[in-house]
């Protein structure tokens, strides 16, 4: 069965290294919107941020590549366990269906936060 291009997480979140991760984690997802759907995706995704405030969620950022064509979502969760609970939730499944019509491809991956500095707007 082919993997869903909207939700296929390229990071092994269950392996030995993932089990050793403690503390906050960062989801980085590079989206390619369907032609003519960039603004519709931005509108849908930002509306979802307000709806998807779940336990363990610490915040999101959405950016656009300066040359156009790609959007990046960065979400921070208090732990890998909090992310996994969100990912397995009905709220996440509903979120995917909201953004699916606007997305050609997504490339999500989970990262351990190693260092943090400054105040990101």
What is the fold's blueprint, element by element?
Blueprint: H1 16-19, E1 25-33, H2 38-51, E2 57-64, E3 71-77, H3 80-87, H4 90-99, E4 103-112
Antiparallel strand pairs: 1-3, 1-4, 2-3
What report would you give on this structure?
The protein is an alpha+beta fold and 121 residues long. The protein contains 4 helices and 4 strands. It has helices at 16-19, 38-51, 80-87, 90-99, and strands at 25-33, 57-64, 71-77, 103-112. A 4-stranded antiparallel beta sheet has the order 2-3-1-4. The longest helix is centred in the middle third of the chain and has 14 residues, at 38-51.
Task: Supply database-style keywords.
121 residues, four-stranded antiparallel β-sheet
How would you summarize this macromolecular structure in one to three sentences?
By secondary structure, the chain is an alpha+beta fold. The protein contains 4 helices and 4 strands; from the N terminus they run H-E-H-E-E-H-H-E.
- Give the fraction of residues assigned to helices: 25-40%
User: In oligomeric terms, what are we looking at?
Assistant: single chain
**Radius of gyration of CA atoms, rounded to a whole number:** 14 Å
What would you call the shape?
globular
Q: Would you identify the regions where 5 or more consecutive residues have pLDDT less than 50?
A: none
State the secondary-structure class: alpha+beta
The strand count comes to 4
Distance between the termini: 40 Å
Question: Largest sheet, described in full?
Answer: 4 strands, antiparallel
Order of helical and strand elements: HEHEEHHE
Q: Please report the number of helical segments.
A: 4
Strand order of the largest sheet: 2-3-1-4
- Strand content is 25-35%
Mean pLDDT: 85
């Amino acid at each position: 069965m082919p993997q869903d291009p909207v939700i296929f997480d390229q990071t092994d979140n269950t392996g030995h290294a993932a089990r050793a991760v403690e503390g906050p984690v960062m989801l980085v997802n590079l989206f390619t919107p369907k032609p003519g759907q960039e603004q519709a995706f931005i509108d849908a995704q930002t509306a979802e941020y307000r709806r998807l405030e779940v336990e363990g969620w610490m915040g999101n950022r959405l950016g656009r590549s300066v040359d156009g064509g790609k959007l990046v979502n960065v979400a921070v969760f208090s732990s890998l366990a909090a992310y996994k609970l969100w990912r397995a939730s009905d709220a996440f499944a509903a979120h995917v269906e909201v953004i699916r019509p606007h997305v050609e491809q997504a490339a999500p991956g989970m990262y351990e936060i190693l260092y943090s500095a400054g105040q990101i707007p």
